[in-house]
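Data availability excerpt. The first of two example chains:
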Amino acid sequence: MQMAIDYAQECNCCKACLLSYAYREEAHKFYESLGFDGDLKRGFVIMF
């Protein structure tokens, strides 16, 4: 994950986004430990 974040920064990307099922609280804690903010934006998905 850190390599992907570093690469995005090196490429002058303005953001990195993750999608995760709402019930995956352990994954959310992991993402937050990397600096991601789960309260900043909200994503919506339609699945078929």
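And the second chain:
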Amino acid sequence: MADTMEKIVSLCKRRGFIFQSSDIYGGLANTWDYGPFGVELKNNVKRAWWKANVYERDDIFGMDAAILMHPKVWEASGHVENFFDLKSDCKSCKKRFKSEDLKTAKVCPECGGELTEARPFNLMFKTHRGVIEDASSVVYLRPETAQGMFVNFANILDSRHPKLPFGIAQIGKAFRNEITPGNFTFRTCEFEQMEIEYFVRPEEADKKLEEWIEAHFNWYIDLGINKDNLRKRPHEKEELAHYARACVDIEYRFPFTTRGAQADGTWSELEGIANRTDFDLAQHSKISGKELQYFDDAAKQKFYPYIIEPSGGVDRTVLAFLVDAFCEEKVKDDIRVVLKLHKDLAPTKVAVLPLLRNRPEIVELARKISRDLKKSMVAVYDDTGAIGKLYRRQDEVGTLYCVTVDVQSLEDNQVTVRDRDTMQQERIGIDRIKEYLLNKLS
């Protein structure tokens, strides 16, 4: 399993998916930059999530809240008081560890040195707003996107006039100052969340929780995740957050080799789906003094709706899709590495390749076809190697189709289209190539 993860990390750097942040300065631990293919994959994951949860529904409204919020938001939410980890420092190598990740509370897992007693550390990044750094200027980088939706509950009611049940969706950055186990992009200090706050009548909360669990579990499968690598794990009572009545994690079996990992991988959270009750709206109403209740016209009464929250991480979801799509196939005497990404997620849909780069007329025709396809789909042109090497390169980044322009194309106005997964090739007329590919992609 460790070998699989090493291969994926290597592929990500080699092919421009993910780079170590600040690499030329030795890097900054647990921070990552998304390269040309990585940013396309990441955007495609977010686009697919937004399409399924906002565009294809009538009861979800999108928004984008600010990262910096009034500090009282975090007092009301409980983050100032409750958002911390127990951590110990090594007296020798000075590294810091989460208590829950330690096999023993006495000995450093890195150097064998003595550990300090576990102490609580707040996970929020604190900074100052303005030119004077004092208690009155303290603000925090948000540790979650959820609170931005709760404090805008009344604004959505006043501007869109929705009826229960309805939700607010948001994709955005969050920041947590936590020690990470080093599993590539799975847990980092800076990350993106895909979250929904779905407001329901209290008596409907349990039913709606189950509906969201099924909907999001199936979303991963619909986009190509192997069902055998997914599971639902209900939280035990003692691990529930202070605001939650129930929570179920959708977990993926990653090829991590962390403590306690099984031979067939480590089950780790992709997304948590929780029943937050009415805690958040009641708390913000109490602390802010603003009315955040919902008025039921039929019953002529006000109440705080319960909240069902599907909350997933963009970065760990991207990693799961990369891991699940990674495939090594024996082709004759060679090993073909291919990312069998779903067509909606593949960073590049089509690559146009000239068979002979020293023939100007072939290159010109290939570039013309590429320019035309770019208007309708994500297409690239590449003439930086022999055709076999170009095919392998496109396989590694998950490109769905390769269009090869050869000498015969100059005579019969046809090109060869190669399918990524089957490697089957088909001759298609240049005048039909766009329609042919669009039909495949749809």
